[in-house]
């Protein structure tokens, strides 16, 4: 199969993106975001979970959670390219919400292809939120690596690095059984589920590790049987990496635009900062880097829709390049804001922290390139 023209980004996708951009600009300008999540500068504060639930309800009413849910399950059944455009806008706005984690969960559920998974997809289309509880303490994304066990219909163990754990209704839990890796649906308020908040630098998200203390589950909660769990996670991984890359691209565009505007009004030596080549050239470099990362990201999204045999390769390329862009954009935005760029009151720190979190999430640029090398050349014996 070959990709369609322009990554299949048509009128519907453009309208969805433009509507989202205007909605977020009106509903969550950056000063409001800063007031929402950055009210307490104390380094030793308890981990917080700050988000606008009323704004989230508006997002649900706009139908964002239905975009990639199949029509037969109550969704819009749109492409991953359409969802990528939405995620890019949430990155641009720095949106604190369970939107990305619920989208990631939808990607996994689509691959499960079981009645419980289809039911949960329908609930997500109606506003239920979910996140993946699939990563062991080592941080490995390999499907076989797991710290949660299932035996006698009880879950025991701990899932780590669970994103936006305190914003969601459901956990999708990876569990190891005698027959392989299975996936289970567990309500966030279930008995014997212990959510322990982690301290992270990203003010727009929360993270936790979750203890499952002999949590009882039934067959109705089995999303993927032991023979299917690994395959579902592996097939969903390219989409998850693509969405994280899209978030970084959107945030980098905010960093670029905000920094350019600042260099137009800030003067030094009787000149606008933007006059100096030492400022001008890196900003042009950043613009080119963002375009490159966006092209790779939409290429990966389109491949997932139209040529899945290349999806893993393209998604790792996108995540690696977007991580590079996130680092460079964060560095330059702080430096070019001068003395105020290092202050809590300057908005750029919100995006720098979100970018740093995204860089590491599901593997940084070096990790993605190593995995890409394995895909292209095969594992290298050491």
Describe this structure in words.
- The chain is built from 11 helices and 10 strands.
- The relative contact order is 0.12.
- The protein starts with 10 loop residues before the first helix and ends in a 5-residue tail after the last helix.
- The chain is globular, with a radius of gyration of 21 Å.
- Strand 4 and strand 5 form a beta hairpin.
- The mean pLDDT is about 95.
- The chain has helices spanning about 10-25, 30-35, 55-60, 80-95, 100-110, 115-125, 230-265, 275-305, 310-335, 350-360, 365-375; strands at about 130-135, 150, 155-165, 170-175, 180-185, 195-200, 205-215, 220-225, 265-270, 270.
- It has a 4-stranded mixed β-sheet. Strands 2-3-7-6 form a 4-stranded antiparallel β-sheet, with no helix packed on it. A two-stranded antiparallel sheet has the order 9-10.
- It has about 375 residues and is an alpha+beta fold.
- It has 3 domains: about 5-130, Orthogonal Bundle (Butyryl-Coa Dehydrogenase, subunit A, domain 1), CATH 1.10.540.10; about 130-230, Butyryl-CoA Dehydrogenase, subunit A, domain 2; about 230-375, Butyryl-CoA Dehydrogenase, subunit A, domain 3, CATH 1.20.140.
- Helices cover about 50% and strands about 15% of the residues.
- Helix 7 (about 230-265) runs antiparallel to helix 10 (about 350-360) and helix 9 (about 310-335) runs antiparallel to helix 10.
């Amino acid at each position: 199969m070959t990709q369609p023209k322009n990554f299949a980004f048509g009128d519907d996708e453009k309208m969805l993106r433009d509507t989202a951009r205007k909605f977020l600009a009106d509903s969550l300008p950056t000063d409001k975001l800063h007031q929402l999540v950055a009210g307490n500068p104390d380094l030793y504060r308890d981990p917080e979970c700050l988000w606008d639930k009323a704004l989230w309800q508006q997002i649900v009413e706009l139908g964002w959670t239905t975009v990639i849910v199949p029509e037969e399950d109550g969704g819009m059944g749109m492409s991953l390219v359409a969802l990528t455009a939405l995620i890019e806008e949430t990155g641009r706005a720095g949106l604190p919400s369970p939107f990305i984690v619920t989208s990631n969960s939808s990607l996994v559920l689509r691959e499960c292809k079981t009645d419980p998974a289809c039911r949960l997809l329908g609930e997500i289309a109606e506003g239920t939120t979910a996140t993946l509880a699939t990563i062991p303490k080592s941080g490995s994304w390999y499907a076989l690596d797991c710290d949660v066990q299932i035996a006698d219909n009880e879950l025991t163990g701990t899932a780590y690095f669970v994103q936006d754990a305190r914003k969601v209704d459901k956990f999708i839990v990876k569990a190891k059984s005698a027959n392989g890796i299975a996936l289970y649906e567990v309500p966030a308020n279930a008995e014997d589920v212990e959510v322990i908040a982690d301290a992270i630098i990203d003010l727009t998200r929360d993270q936790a590790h979750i203890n499952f203390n002999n949590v009882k589950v039934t067959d109705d909660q089995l999303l993927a049987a032991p023979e299917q769990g690994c395959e579902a996670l592996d097939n969903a991984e390219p989409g998850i990496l693509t969405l994280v890359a899209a978030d970084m691209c959107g945030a980098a565009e905010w960093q670029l635009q905000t920094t350019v505007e600042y260099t137009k009004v800030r003067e030094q030596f009787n000149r606008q900062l933007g006059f100096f080549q030492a400022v001008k050239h890196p900003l042009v470099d950043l613009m080119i880097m963002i375009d490159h990362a966006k092209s790779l990201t939409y290429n990966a999204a389109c491949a997932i829709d139209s040529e899945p045999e290349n999806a893993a390769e393209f998604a790792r390329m996108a995540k690696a390049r977007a991580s590079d862009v996130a680092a460079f954009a964060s560095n330059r935005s702080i430096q070019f804001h001068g003395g105020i760029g290092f202050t809590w009151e300057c908005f750029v720190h919100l995006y720098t922290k979100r970018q740093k979190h995204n860089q590491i999430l599901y593997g940084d640029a070096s990790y993605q390139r190593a995995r890409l090398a394995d895909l292209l050349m095969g594992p290298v014996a050491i």
